[in-house]
Design goal:
alpha/beta; 8-stranded parallel beta barrel; 16% strand
């Protein structure tokens, strides 16, 4: 299993990328998932990139951004190429995005048709460079329900289209994450791991709250202390595929929580390996 931290976890902290990389290495993480805005702001400093990060024994697991699907096609392709170049500079072939700004049930047939067309164009652009577009399973997008996500994959029908499987948000949709994982398995390239204290607190992850410095963090809990059963999920996931995952923590005490979560994930995996022997 390859485990990454997300630079978005440090979005309200005064840490440099050097400090984050040094800490990630000290905690034996395998990689760093770069938030798109962080990657873009580092682009003018050629010192930072794949070779710099590999000196820490780390890799860039993914660039997580929000491609402008509501823009005209020329603007969208220009931004896609910009992000593609950044991804190449950091040595990753995975770019994450959301599809749409409304839930699948609220999206009209014509709106969906347009989004599918744009996603296919992005996939065609990235495919020529050996890169993949990872659509995240997320509320208020076309990947908010398992059926809609499966339909999206079929509608776009392109080898560059993959899934970033956010376990919590799949659980939020009302389906068991293990069932969804098994159905989406051929398309999953990455996992996001986070948890919540109760279903009533899920609004804490709404974009207008989670990105705000003054937003509430009530309900965010460490990975093995919430409603999603990660012991069950990871026990099943490790049997089905190699896992590339990021600990996506948005709350306080970032280093303490990430350190503890990573330690508990590794302990669980070690226990599973012992059982297999």
């Amino acid at each position: 299993m390859k485990l990454s931290i997300c630079t978005i976890s440090f979005r309200h902290h005064l840490y440099s990328i050097d400090q984050i990389a040094h800490w990630a290495k000290s905690q034996q993480f395998d990689g760093i998932e770069l938030w798109g805005v962080h990657a873009k702001n580092l682009r003018d400093d050629s010192h930072y990139g794949e070779e710099w990060l590999s000196a820490y024994g780390l890799e860039t697991s993914m660039i997580s951004d929000y491609l402008p699907l509501d823009a005209n096609i020329d603007t969208m392709i220009k931004e896609t190429n910009h992000l593609s170049n950044i991804a190449s500079h950091w040595g990753t072939n995975k770019i994450r995005t959301f599809v749409g700004r409304k839930g699948s049930e609220q999206t009209s047939h014509q709106e969906r048709k347009e989004l599918v067309k744009k996603i296919r164009l992005i996939c065609e652009e990235l495919h020529t460079k050996g890169q993949y577009l990872l659509v995240e399973t997320h509320p208020n997008t076309l990947a908010d329900q398992l059926d809609s996500t499966l339909n999206l994959l079929q509608e776009v029908h392109h080898p560059a289209l993959r899934i970033n499987f956010d376990v919590l948000h799949v659980w939020e949709s009302g389906i068991h994450p293990i069932k969804a994982m098994k159905e989406l398995l051929p398309y999953i390239s990455h996992f996001h791991l986070k948890n919540i204290s109760s279903r009533e607190k899920l609004s804490v992850f709404a974009p207008d709250n989670v990105y705000a410095a003054a937003g509430t963090r009530e309900g965010m809990v460490p990975l093995f202390h919430g409603k999603v059963d990660y012991q069950e999920f990871l026990s099943e996931a490790i049997e089905t595929m190699d896992i590339n995952a990021s600990l996506e923590w948005f709350g306080g005490n970032v280093k303490d929580v990430l350190k503890k979560d990573a330690s508990e994930v590794r302990e669980l995996l070690q226990q599973l390996l012992v059982k297999q022997i």
